[in-house]
Amino acid sequence: MARDDGGGGAQRGERGGGAARPPGRRCGGGAGMTATADVDIALAVLRRGRDTVTPALRAAVARLDRASREQAAYHLGWIELDGTPGHGGGKAVRPALALLSAAAAGAPVQAGLPGAVAVELVHNFSLLHDDLMDGDTERRHRRTVWAHWGAPAAILTGDALLALAVEVLLEGGSPHAAPAARLLAATTRELIRGQAEDVAFERRSDVGVEECLSMAAGKTASLLATSAAIGSVLAGAPVGLTATLQTYGTELGMAFQLVDDLLGIWGDPAVTGKPVLSDLRSRKKSLPVTYAVHHGGTAGRELARWLAGAGEDGEAQLRRAAALVEDGGGRDWAAAEARRRIALGEKALAGADLPDGPRAELVALGRYLVDREF
Amino acid sequence: MARDDGGGGAQRGERGGGAARPPGRRCGGGAGMTATADVDIALAVLRRGRDTVTPALRAAVARLDRASREQAAYHLGWIELDGTPGHGGGKAVRPALALLSAAAAGAPVQAGLPGAVAVELVHNFSLLHDDLMDGDTERRHRRTVWAHWGAPAAILTGDALLALAVEVLLEGGSPHAAPAARLLAATTRELIRGQAEDVAFERRSDVGVEECLSMAAGKTASLLATSAAIGSVLAGAPVGLTATLQTYGTELGMAFQLVDDLLGIWGDPAVTGKPVLSDLRSRKKSLPVTYAVHHGGTAGRELARWLAGAGEDGEAQLRRAAALVEDGGGRDWAAAEARRRIALGEKALAGADLPDGPRAELVALGRYLVDREF
């Protein structure tokens, strides 16, 4: 399953902040780390991001050829297959980060707008191609583009979104557009490296924790890092500030992936939108699984044998596999590592010279994203 | 079959220029238009282009992730599947045009180098994805990347080449790199539009000549137009000169496609590297076929009925179909239209303010490319 940040995140948060969750069943900055005030800030940042970026994103997509335009509008949740209006897209985390990063450089959030549109386009380019490569026929309970229109449609619409991202960024009029586009292109190659490794891992039985972390750095953290910095590049910020924002985005991205992997095993299907124990069903070599295989003693060895097997598992077998990941220390390690990563990111921000408002918003958004229920 | 300019072109030309071919069996500027001197100029321009661009292209590809790097090196003809050295790549028409366009703006050809590398990368991005979409298992008698490594490999390596093209262009250091990258991104979307139409045409029986020309403009002419202009953009040429070079590249591209379609029916398999009557075997709605269907009277109607059929044809049926395209005027029209297009391009160049050397080289290269045997 290709990386995504879900469509119902804002709603989930709005349902009750973090306060009602049992302690010890959250993986962000620790139980109770995300105060209600942080949740409110994060939701406001996400709402502002969506409100700011959506008109520009729609204008950009409107310039695509007819087929790509229709498929992109469906993929982005703006229309349904029968042409009726859709229920909207995802949380738009990356655009929100891009806008915040302009504010972090002391510029108006609008200065980050071309970057915000561009990172969202690149994110969706990768989702369209990944769904096809992974053979996923559904995303958020809707048919994927390749499953409905065929493989060429997903390939071409993805390609078109990638090219459009570069155009949008360079048209923005910033004198710093060229370095921003160069950063985005290099990030795209990192994204591709991560996906290539993910595909290769499926055929291998000897994937190590370091390799798995490197894959996540490419597939998930690289675009979040660039999202958290591209607005500062467009605003002409000093390289030191941009590097700090990239560090924050990288750590946030790694924490986000660790949490996502925990949710892939122990997430509530009603919340994640995926079947229960979904990552185990596909024998995915996720981070907690890989950790338990290599550091989990007897439980890890039994887990490795199960992982090397084939065929469909029953509910009992999947529950047994989940218990092995837990007994092998994979669950605790991933939760602790997510906390450690987000703390590292926050430490980098704390030491940097940026206005207090954007700093607090970046921290609140990061905590909100990694403090999901699982 | 995705657009390509073949690997043996230079060798073909070197075999004897145009002098030995029977008159009336050439589609360029008319029989005898390409003098031996023109052929020599064109071959020297192509050789210089390859010599200049190859080291930079190799350095760019070396930066890709391991899997993409290996697949790209194989696709580009630098290595074989067993790791032994390959027999080299294609003619590198697009890089040669890009370098010439810098010279046309009065700059050193080196000023066009980042553009030359970038257009070659975009061209090969499109070939990798098109081979997969078209289901072609061979290109120039070699297995295609998707056929050997699987669909994800072709998707990801293509994606990586597209991102790399943007990086290379923006790293070149030209103060005009941003508009050049913007032009390349817009061109990529045109390329995608053309391929999307090509895919859609396969399922339709009512494709008109204008639609077919528009498809060719996207799929073939757009990148040749940008190749013939991008060096001038990087050199900071006046917009008028860049527009003229784009016009020349567009007309050259249309002529090139018309000739390619003629070769797809009447080309010598020993020269084209494709089976005899190959485009008819796949019932391709190429330009001469589409013209004959719509303007070919009785022959056109019989051709349309054959086109709507299915199943594999014998040699006799294919020869009959080729005769119907000819009787329906498709062959003569395509040859005349190719001549008209290249003449239009040359007229645009003749009226523009550029140095005589690059102008003569552009004309010679164009004539050489459309004056192929068929």
Automatic annotation (TrEMBL), chains A, B:
Keywords: Magnesium, Metal-binding, Transferase. Residues 1-32 are annotated as: Disordered. Residues 7-19 have a biased composition (Gly residues). It holds the Pfam family polyprenyl_synt. Transmembrane segments: none annotated. It comes from the Bacteria. The keyword Magnesium applies. InterPro entries: Isoprenoid_synthase_dom_sf (IPR008949), Polyprenyl_synt (IPR000092), Polyprenyl_synt_CS (IPR033749). Belongs to the FPP/GGPP synthase family. This is Polyprenyl synthetase family protein. It comes from Pseudonocardia acidicola. The lineage of its organism: Bacteria, Bacillati, Actinomycetota, Actinomycetes, Pseudonocardiales.
